[in-house]
Here is the input.
Amino acid sequence: MKVLNIEETKGRYSFLFGDEKNNTDVYFCNCGTITKTIKSENSFLTKGDIFGDDEKNEDEYNDVFKAIKLSENDVICNGCGKNFASIESQKKLIVNNSFFTSGYNILEDTDNLFLYYSKIKPNIKPRENKNGEYDLLFDESQKYLRYEIKSNRVFFKDFCVDETEFDLDGVIKTVDAIFSEEVNEIQNIYYIHVYINKLAKHVIDVKNINVVDELLSEIRSNHGNAGLGVIKKIVFIFLAIIKYTNLSTIAMTKGCNFLYELMKECEIPDSKSLKELSLTSPISIFNFLIKNYIRIINEDVNADNRELHQFLFKSSKAKTTDFEQEKVASYKELKINFIQNKKYREGKLIKNINKNKFHVLQISSDAEVSKFIYKKINNFSDYKQLLKYFKFYNKQQIIYLLQKYEIDLLVNVIDLIYFRDSVGMKEFERIISIIKDYAFQETIKNRPTLNIESVTIDYYYIKKFDFIYYDDSVMMMEVLKFDPKRHFNKIKTYHQLVDYHDNLVKYFNVVSDKEKNEKFKSFVERFVFLESREDYDGPIEIKLIKTPSMLINEGIQMKHSASSYSKKVITESYVIAQLFDKSDDKPKDDLDRFTIGFTFDSLNGLEFHQIKGFANKPASDRLKKMLMEYLTIKDVSFRQVRDLRTKG
Ligand SMILES: [Zn+2]
Here is the structure.
């Protein structure tokens, strides 16, 4: 198959060939004249001279080769007088053996529909036995997609490889391969559009006319010049539907982009497996495809769930079975008075058992919840975001949230709260109302011409919300022993929050530092052994966060969620410290400053909970290992939660 007509194209280019044997450079000008020059010294440069041992491709070498050759001397064509060294001419001067043009073509007969791609390079050869004479030839490399109409089978032939058949599971790879950009100049993109229209005829049945229309209109709205991105997507969906017709039901209910994202994100099986399971309805196909995906998300979400992980190290103080007596003894040495903490512990344990499980997996076993979510989501990334809510809530709660709030709002809010201390449902509803109001205020502020009554909130602004006012207020209330139920829990707007906060500051300021800090400090000071260098003298340095204001500043400086734990510090169940990595051999890109959090209860003592760098960035494997060593020496329990899990 002749894909490209080179006759017209080659007239736009000139070609350069270095004849080593005769020590000449040979220029084939597009005017038809051949000009020879004696090689200058730097013409003998090889790829190694130019790049050293770096692995560079042929094209890069050719570009540099050409630039070096033409950098010093003008080279004039004997026929038309063109200067090959001029910038304009250099662009159209092709070094032997580099691809300079490419393009598409189609071929259709009664049995097959082909989409061809070919790329072309000059191949100049000295004539045998005729010194100083040359043949200018062109080598073409081809690849193609073949659709066998009657059998509904699809095949791909890559450069230099035999044709192979592919199925649904190979569609993404194949479409990427046929449209990979190889050469700057691409001719006849028009033929891809013709191809799409012809392929569409085989995709069309009564059921999925909408799908084809939706996709073709995407091209039309681009005035026939849709980018390769859109084209790839369309060919991908057409081939996918050809291989498994029922996929069109997903495209029909959720749109083609949804189907495209879904299939890119999930491992698609071959069409035979889907047929054997007789998956036909959109929801049954969707549920099947996302199973693997849910497993991955589930693992990710549960990486933070301590209940699911074994202890890697258990403090000697937590190991004893007869803990009442033993613990009193051992903690007395540390002067830890845990009587006031006991009550809280009991409450916490009950909570843990019932509420703190992560429920992501429920969704794959529950057709109802899945159906509900499927109906609500607009695109696949929404789905990914919603799954994160299973870190805090169960399926009924999530269905409730989906009924009550716009999907765009929920999808944007989860990233703000994901690393915060667990957020109860009532608290979440208060928070989301404040955040929504914040986004509303920002929308108006940034586009003052809007008519306030018909404002559509720009949820982009949610990303800019931070919890400083919120967390600071919670902490001051705790210190001042204010009951949040009286005012704070009734706050609905961002302005109310800021006002409340500023008022609280006035009260807070009249309280003496001693009163402010005492509760916090007296608890935290029990853990000074974490700072001590007597038993541990390694590269990790710990500085306990000893006052409420230190904690709020830590959250501001580090842009993470540490301050959401303030309440737990004040109620004596959480310890927070700064961690510095003072290693001499610290790689340049590793962070050197972190915030570290420990849970505390009188039954188990201290347990490592999390470590977060700036903006919740994780620690390096190197630091995780040092940290485990540190924790062992300090006799602090830890499990293999996300923040300690090394990649190796
Ligand atoms: Zn010329």
User: Anything to note?
Assistant: The first strand starts at residue 14 and ends at 19.
